[in-house]
Write a structure and sequence with these properties.
264 residues, alpha+beta, five-stranded mixed β-barrel, elongated, binds zinc ion
């Protein structure tokens, strides 16, 4: 079947950069067409028809014409804008982080329905006021699943023995998960993992999002789980996400009370 020259698709903006006087190049994720780059010509002129609709953190319906290098945006409608998500700096920074991981996980023009659905669901959760850290961890765990790199949290990745609650174990992302106390693991590795953090990792794999939202954990265990999953994602994608530096900065800055309304 010949590929039509013009087509319409749902899309979410993953990233963008300005080009020339008034154009902008967007990286979009679409449910069936995968990731693609598109150019919005003249979009930075105040008179542009495309104007303010081509924003991140929204599900768009985009009309595109096939082009040689980039497809060309001919039309945009906002299907749903996740406006609350933008009210909190931490939610917005988390949304950029999630977008970056999505971008890095996809090759252009490869179908990506599960990743599209995962991104959309994460934005809905941030928009609904769920704690950004919980959404980020949930996203990371499910992204790893989709990439075929689900972390092993039940059995030692070296000897395949079920790890027991009363032993000391370590978290070794390059090997794919948890290592029991009997196995040496890599010599330079020294990342111990607490039982509570391991339980939280299991929860992210097994519980639905409503149950995860209701979990209570100490800040220490949350941080430990965060570090464990970030390490795993860094190994899986073979580099650190650029947006993490900004996210960490946002979280350390004192946040005025007025800007955290809607945050959980
Ligand atoms: Zn072992």
């Amino acid at each position: 079947m010949p590929v039509p020259r013009r087509y319409t698709t749902d899309a979410i903006v993953l990233s963008r950069f300005d080009l020339g006087e008034a154009d902008r190049v967007l990286t979009l994720i679409t449910p069936t067409g995968g990731k693609l780059k598109a150019i919005a010509k003249g979009v930075r002129r105040p008179t542009s028809r495309l104007g303010g609709s081509l924003e991140p953190f929204a599900e768009l319906t985009v009309g595109l014409a096939r082009g040689r290098t980039f497809d060309v945006v001919t039309e945009v409608r906002v299907g749903h804008a996740w406006l609350n998500l933008r009210d909190s700096l931490e939610s917005a920074a988390t949304a950029w982080y999630i977008a970056e991981l999505t971008d890095r996980s996809l090759e252009e023009r490869h179908a990506s329905e599960p990743l599209y659905a995962l991104l959309k669901r994460s934005y809905e959760l941030l928009d609904a006021g769920m704690a950004p850290g919980r959404v980020a961890r949930w996203y990371e765990m499910h992204l790893l699943d989709e990439l075929g790199q689900r972390p092993e949290v039940d059995r030692c990745v070296e000897c395949d023995r079920v790890v027991e609650a009363d032993e000391r174990f370590r978290w070794v992302p390059p090997l794919g998960g948890v290592v029991c106390q009997r196995c040496p693991g890599p010599p330079h590795d020294r990342t111990g993992l607490s039982l509570e953090a391991l339980k939280l990792l299991k929860a992210y794999q097994r519980l639905d999002i409503e149950a995860i939202a209701g979990l209570r954990q100490s800040a220490t265990v949350e941080r430990e789980t965060e570090a464990a999953l970030r390490d795993f994602v860094r190994v899986a994608l073979e580099r650190e996400a650029r947006s993490l530096a900004f996210l960490d900065e946002v979280r350390q800055a004192p946040v005025p009370a007025s800007s955290v309304t809607g945050g959980a």
